[in-house]
């Protein structure tokens, strides 16, 4: 008996030694007081691909302000969506600009002009009666389709999503009318050809529409309800005309739990994908940041990060359901007054923030993490 106890004691002792000798698991909370940091990627400002001689010709329809430049991507309630490690952004809309160009950036901060701005309808001009009122009066400012067949600029909010082939946009506040407008309100951009085409509408579209891509489907949420679009079949296969929420809140998806999460405008909740559009489960003890509108929200490394200018960066641990306020060095800026939306994103397994037309893209570095010494490899697209 004594020998068995001795053997058991030795085994337990070696087991304890082995456990405490293991390195800290990935995702473990760093030591108290450890600081994260925002790192500015050199030479990664959005305006590196602007053409001042051409782009500044874009004005509003009365020529009063330079709102119709690429700069509207930052200052006109614009979001973003990721496809194959590139973040696609587009701006303009309402009174901020007719400029409907699309830009993209990779994780190294290399920007690319994906589409060029379209010509707009001249005052009083209507395309063969399109966008006319019942009385025959031309409503050029309400047209969702421009002379070259591309869609008019919008405040895109959280209505952008992407897969490997297309950038999708739904709803939005159209230039210059400020409403959904007359004509198609759902569009997709072929990322290979640069051509726009409408795709079917659910009837739930609003100015502030949420759109998320998951496994060949688009999941839509608005104040009118919820919709599910089968991309391959090119049709809506599910629709619930009740509940819902607008793009003051941001919805993201976690593939490991097969859940959607929603944060912002007073909401912090989750829902299983197979129960989409039904009851949301509240997340306990949310921090005050969830009361803010138009948050930057992104899922990264088993956590969901919430950012709003002037507030602490918050990490929500998906697996434990716990909240963590992160101490950060570096200044990410304060330009989120018109929303961050999808411009807080994950590229090449890095959390990045696009938060200024003329400032560099930001990486979030973990405690003790150093930026790479070598130059980034530019992606193939």
Automatic annotation (TrEMBL):
Signal peptide: 1-27
Keyword NAD among UniProt keywords: no
Coiled-coil ranges from the UniProt annotation: none
Domain of life, per lineage: Bacteria
Keywords: Signal
Cross-referenced InterPro entries: Gal_Oxase/kelch_b-propeller (IPR011043), Kelch-typ_b-propeller (IPR015915)
UniProt entry tagged with the keyword ATP-binding: no
Name of the protein: Galactose oxidase
């Amino acid at each position: 008996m004594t020998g068995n106890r001795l053997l058991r004691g030795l085994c337990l002792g070696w087991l304890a030694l082995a456990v405490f000798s293991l390195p800290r698991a990935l995702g473990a909370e760093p030591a108290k007081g450890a600081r994260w940091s925002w790192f500015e990627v050199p030479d990664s400002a959005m305006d590196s691909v602007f053409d001042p001689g051409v782009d500044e010709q874009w004005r509003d329809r009365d020529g009063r302000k330079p709102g119709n430049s690429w700069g509207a991507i930052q200052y006109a309630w614009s979001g973003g969506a990721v496809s194959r490690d590139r973040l696609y952004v587009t701006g303009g809309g309402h009174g901020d600009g007719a400029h409907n160009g699309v830009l993209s950036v990779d994780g190294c901060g290399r920007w690319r002009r994906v589409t060029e701005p379209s010509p707009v309808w001249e005052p009083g001009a209507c395309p063969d009666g399109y966008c006319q009122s019942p009385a025959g009066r031309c409503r050029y400012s309400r047209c969702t389709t421009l002379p070259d067949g591309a869609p008019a600029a919008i405040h895109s909010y959280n209505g952008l999503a992407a897969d490997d082939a297309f950038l999708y946009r739904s709803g939005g506040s159209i230039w210059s009318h400020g409403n959904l407008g007359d004509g198609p309100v759902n569009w997709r951009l072929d990322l290979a050809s640069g051509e726009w085409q409408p795709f079917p509408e659910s009837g739930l579209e609003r100015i502030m529409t949420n759109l998320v891509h998951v496994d060949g489907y688009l999941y839509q949420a608005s104040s009118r309800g919820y919709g599910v679009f089968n991309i391959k079949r090119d049709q809506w296969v599910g629709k619930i005309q009740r509940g819902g929420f607008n793009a003051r809140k941001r919805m993201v998806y976690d593939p490991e739990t097969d859940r959607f999460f929603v944060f912002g405008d007073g909401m912090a909740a989750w829902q299983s994908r197979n129960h989409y559009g039904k009851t949301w489960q509240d997340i306990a003890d949310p921090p005050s940041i969830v009361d803010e509108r138009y948050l930057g929200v992104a899922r990264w490394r088993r956590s969901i990060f919430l950012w709003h200018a002037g507030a602490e960066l918050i990490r929500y641990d998906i697996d434990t359901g716990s909240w963590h306020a992160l101490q950060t060095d570096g200044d990410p800026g304060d330009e989120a007054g018109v929303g961050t939306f999808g411009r807080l994103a994950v590229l090449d397994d890095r959390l990045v923030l696009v938060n200024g037309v003329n400032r560099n893209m930001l990486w979030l570095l973990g405690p003790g993490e150093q930026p790479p010494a070598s130059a980034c490899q530019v992606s193939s697209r």
